[in-house]
Amino acid sequence: MKTFRRGIHPREFKELSKDQAIQALPAPPQVVLPMSQHLGVPCVPTVKKGDAVRKGQVVGEPDPSNPRRFVSAPVHASISGKVVAVEPRPTPLAPSVLCVVVENDGQDAWLDGLPAETDPATLDANSIKARIQAAGIVGMGGAGFPTHVKISPPPEKPIDTLILNAAECEPFLTCDYRLMLERTAEVVEGLLILGKALAVKNVLVGIEANKPDALAALSKAAEGRGVRVEMCKVKYPQGAEKQLIYALTRRVVPAGGLPLEVGVVVQNVATALAVREAVCLGKPLIERVVTVTGDGVGQPSNFLVRLGTPFRALLEAARMHPGVRKVVAGGPMMGIAVGNLDVPVVKGTSGLLVLQEAEMPDWRACISCGRCVDACPMGLMPNEISIACEAKNLEAAAAANLMDCFECGCCTYVCPAKRPIVHWVKWAKAEAAKKKAQQPKQKAG
Asked: Angle at the Cα of 298 (from 297 to 302), degrees rounded to 5?
């Protein structure tokens, strides 16, 4: 069975929501649409307060004055209605981001002039990429990297392999699993469209062995279409890009490098579906499936939600219990705790984990047991990184390959001293980014 080196086996908790079919949540009275829901250049609003907008209309576009605007993704209205504000608002990822706020008119009227339904066989690679770019599609597994950029590698980096990441290894989350069961043919069609855009020789699907029904469904839908579906061992973080690439191809992405360095592109299940809808139906990315789960809700669910819907609406629909201690955007390993339940669902929101008990354990000094080293899927020394970060020694942390850490949480999970290693890593990376941003100013001064 395909797998990678090291890793851990946390309890999955997927039984809470895996059998809950996707339910469409009603559009909310108001949506908040951040101009930055992706990695790269933020968008600038194309509408102003008082404007009427329709569903599917562009309300934010990459800043035309920014030379790096290609690395961005437009934002579309997820409802029809009136723009009531263009102002900074809190989001799941930042305390203040410029947002377009739209009040629902109840009409749910689509914008006229969206691309017509199309047979993808009639489109060439550039036309496919243009549709994906115009639809605002980004990686929906959490990273949020613009998809059109990912499938446009430089000529000197030829891609021969496309991988569909169907592992969904994060505990609790089942949104991709439900898409694989309920929208199987469309997911596979989206994967094949991506394969055509990249002109690859190999199209692979990596799925963990704990999803036999989804594996069977994908295998049937992909039969005779040049797609190889591979079963992977159930282990965290099987769905991390570099680990999945190694498991399926035995190629090793170099330290500090990207998958394209070894001729591979990896795409998420929800992203593949969004690509199919954009290319075949002309539909921009305005909604996604979100898992709401945990012991803090009475009805764990998988909701189809308009982007910009407040977290509170999802939590109420899942019957959140009173006295909840913590809400996490994402899963328990890589998610981010949120303190404001009115922040909006964005393109990368895969789940909301609601916990009744969330006490922070007391941590202590590293006891040099080496468990974090044994668990780290990147082969790093998390103990050394954490000690350097705790001492605020960024140079030592960098020397221990801080930037190769992708914050999977394996080290924190196994640490008997309960050290908040991932917290320190995030802090150190943020500090390093601040210093880097200040360097040009210092030179200019």
From this structure: 70
